[in-house]
# Entry
Amino acid sequence: MALAADIRVADPDTVFGLPEVGIGILPSSGGVTRLVREVGPARTRDLVLRGRRFGAPEAYTWGLIGEIAEGGTVREKAVEIATELAAQPRLAVSVAKQVITAAADAPREAALLLEQLAYAALNRSG
# Structure
């Protein structure tokens, strides 16, 4: 579920894992696809095939989470981030999320063009 979030923050003691293969299934709802895009195929193979658990420090190092909150403050930190995002112009946030998602898989030239078009559209929305 955490892989579906735009911004991820975790408690220092958080433990992540994808144990599904061990019970005869695969991570679902885009778990494998999202993980491959976040950490690459080699690390995804290691985590998914072995069902290996990992902590917040590893997740942070790999870029899976953006921040480790001080112990016991993860909810407060998540609300702080959500409040910060909610204060931003909604259309700009929505378009930025779409451009970021598309740019991750697009060729460089296509990603740059998309960014320029999105900028122009937002600039006109005033």
